[in-house]
What does this fold into?
Amino acid sequence: MTDTTFATPLRAEPAGIERRAARDLLRRSRCKPAEILFWLAAAASFFLLPDRHLLLSEIAILGLFALSLDLIIGYAGVVSLGHGAFFGLGAYVAGLTSIHLTGAPLGGLALAALAAGLLGLLTGPLLLLRASDLTRLMVTLGVAMLLYEAANRAAWLTGGADGLQGVMIDPLLGRFEFDLFGTTAYAYCLIVTFVLFLIARRVVTSPYGLSLRAIRDNALRARSMGIPVGPRLLAIYAFSAVIAGIAGALLTQTTMFVSLDVLAFHRSADVLLVLVLGGVGYLYGGLIGAIAFKLLQDWFSALTPQYWMFWMGLVLLVIVLIGRDRIDALPRAILRRIRKEGRV
It folds into this structure.
């Protein structure tokens, strides 16, 4: 009698935890009204802003790149200063594919994703299993610098400092040609970004995504619970590399040019700034940060072409000093104030 009394709660507790976890995942996986409005607004911009398609394409590519970095920083707790290596590799693979194999956009996109994913799998064990914290930052930066120098030395293949010449992209699906106004390019970038966002959203709202958050919060405790920390971090790192490579390939295909600039350090630094602007740890942070970053960059460049970086730095300082939490809470505070005054 006594054994039965004590055994029942012990069996019920894990089941209760599993039910709560399942409910939490189901709640997170549901599409919110604000998300639908966000993507409807993105689709509407295609029709409402026809003269800004080039800028909107850049925003979509940068947002996709930031999304890839947020997967490892915001969900797995792996900080990287060399994520531009995957972006640049994807850009070069897409360019070389168009010159030597096929000009089909989707074919180049697939090969760029494959190459970036393989690089992620090859460098992942070095970065994730053999390094930590500050050392990891230096290793990621070192990998990116090695790739940059390799591309610079292999001028016979990459064009070196002059860039890769002769990139030609066939019409999308054999029908939609890439024009100078960026109309096809923006539709292409927006659809690819949306599809990859849905895949990333499905990943982070799955049990696997939940285990990544446990690893991020406390890797030792996650390992003691039986979560295979190394393989799971390696998997999300490679997946993140695939998305970054696709972002780089999109840049090459929409501009039909690629140079060493895609592997430069500022690519990795810019995408970190985008996450600072948009927020880390939720997928829309990268997209919103990309919109804010590109619009501010465009505005400051037109206002003061020589000192736009000064004003961008000032904006970042203000955000850091005020704090992301206070900025996020500001709209809710304003709404509460309006409702309160409305009752009076």
Q: What stands out?
A: The two ends are 63 Å apart (CA to CA).
